[in-house]
Amino acid sequence: MKLSELGDLYSTLLEAAVDAIITIDEQGFITSFNSAAERLFGYSRDEVVGRKVNLLMPPDTAARHDRYLQNYLSTRKPRVIGIGREVEGQHRNGSRIPLHFSVGEAVHEGKRTFIGICHDLSKYREIVEQLEETEQRYRDIVESQKQLICRVDSQLRITFANASFSQVIGVQHDALMGLPLTEIADDDEHRLGHLLAGMFRAHGNLNEVNIKVTMKSRDSGALVDWSFKRVDGAGDPQEPELQGFGIDISQQEAALQQALYLRNHDYLTGFLNMRAFSSAMKAWIEPRRRYALLHLACGRFEMINRQYGYDAGDNVIVEAAKRIRLTLIRPNLCARTGSDMLVVIGVRDNEEAHDTALQLVQSLERPYRVNGSSLRLDVVCGIALYPADSASQETLQNMASSAARDARDHGATAAYFDADYHEDLKKQMEIEQGLKEALDNQDIEVYLQPKIGLDDHTVHSYEALVRWQHPERGFISPADFIPIAERSALGQKLDRYVLNSAAQLIARCRQQSRPVPVIAVNVTARHFSDLALPEYLEQLMRRYKFPPESLQLEITEGMVMQMRQTTTQVMERLRTQGIQVSIDDFGTGYSSLSYLSHLLVDELKIDKVFIDDLQSERGATLVRSVIAIAKANNLRITAEGIETAAQARILRGMDCDMGQGYFFARPKPGHEVLGLSS
């Protein structure tokens, strides 16, 4: 081949090359610059040929280039020639270009030429950076997982563990590598090792296993819910590994155990709750043995909660439970129900049960320190015996509760179950439940009894009285069910029922153009001291559109004697509303007559007991004194329970304003008394 043809071939090859090819002479001047170099560096061939090659280098490299070249020419020790390396070039616009640079040397006709081949690494670097970012992102994701992530080889040695794994186990990451996973598992039955080893067997079809196992840790151990899968090995696909994902469920398990505990126990005392207590009794009580169920009724907790707050009340309950544990030196079952405690113990005889009851009451009644004050509980104990009283555990609990109420009612420290008292109590509870249903079904009827002016014999007002015809028991006297209502939560409900019924009667009189009556309603102590009472009355007046003077409230003298600040506030608001208040059954509370001058009341009603004794000198003197003091305080006076003409005549002579009783009229249904059509 001719030399000219070789030159043409050489030029063609240079131009066809993908990589930039640059030749320089011994002084570092560019002698050739192919098209790929033009594209890479942004210079045309004419712009760079004859110029120093360091034109294509960043300033820090360019300054050293000539020295490197001279060192080679003088020492002939290559540092770049024949060796590929990564360097940086500089584009015409000043940007840096990552390059893989290799240099060759050629001598022709005594002249030395250096040939440089520059491979653009920009795309490669970009891909590498993306891969590094992806790998870092993957690592960040893995390391930030709360899950425990690990890999183990066929020998169950740890080959990878994330940060959560290291933190939970309490071992540094480097120390974990190569450590058999089974060595940090608290697994006496070797279930973990057996399952994982099975996944490596050649013919095994176990590709995934799930197991809960406690892992040894810096604390008391961590219960981990593991899921393992077989995966290809990182170094050799033929050497599979197991990848594990674990969740530390220690807290969840502890919470579950706590929930199960709280399901069966009282959170304050640690005693059983009633459901668990009943179940435990069935398993604990042995036939042919004798037991005593003690019901400790602890009073005054409501007062402590109201005065010192619920935290103080809780502290007293906790202390009371401790005292019970310290007092009982024999096996027992204890339960808490509200503020009361139940205790079951095995006994030899009744006297032993009674002695234990007294010891418990004595311990519980010792003073408690509450916010610097010394407080005492009012405790009684009811005792029911198994199997003497009953072999039914539910019945036994009811009997012990009944005995506790018996002790409270009779001022005793402890009382055994009494069948007669229990029957009376059962009857009261039946009445209470029946009364609730009667109020819900509006089966309580409101009767009216007039108050008659003793001078003019005209009706001035009426008192609302309640009557209840039970579907099974027949007529139930108010003397039987009203005290039961007052002792329970039904007192206020019954009051509001009667107030609403009275308001309806007044409204019906207005609608039927009948004279608008004045109706007095008895209100229980608890309801009268409720600050919401005036608001309820205001709602009634707006709903039924009647004037306040059409409604009166009657309270007992005993309520006045126990008057609290809230009761006084209620009386002041009633006075502002225009609703009048009467003191019913006056004289039975033995209050000071001078106290009347301080009361915001409008009327006194002398109790029937004093009217019955009216014809004796002592009785007449007492009634005359009451009337005189009432008149001095501008109070109306009504005598209750007048049954004879003689009583009416004597009272009229004493200047008594009004009378009420069978002599004038018996109570009748309200609509009938007022002449209302249905």
Structure description:
The chain has 678 residues and is an alpha+beta fold. The protein contains 25 helices and 28 strands. The protein has an eight-stranded mixed barrel with strand order 19-20-22-23-24-25-26-27, surrounded by five helices. A six-stranded antiparallel sheet has the order 7-6-11-10-9-8. Helix 11 packs across helix 12, helix 16 crosses helix 17 and helix 17 (490-511) packs parallel to helix 19 (533-544). The termini are far apart.
> Helix segment count?
25
Distance between the termini: 136 Å
| Overall average pLDDT | 84
What does the main sheet amount to? 8 strands, mixed, barrel
* Alpha-carbon Rg, integer: 51 Å
Beta fraction of the residues?
A: 15-25%
Name the helicity range.
Answer: 40-55%
- Structural class, by secondary structure, is alpha+beta
Cross-sheet strand order for the largest sheet: 19-20-22-23-24-25-26-27
Instruction: Tell me how many strands there are.
Output: 28
Spatial shape = elongated
Unreliable segments of 5+ consecutive residues: none
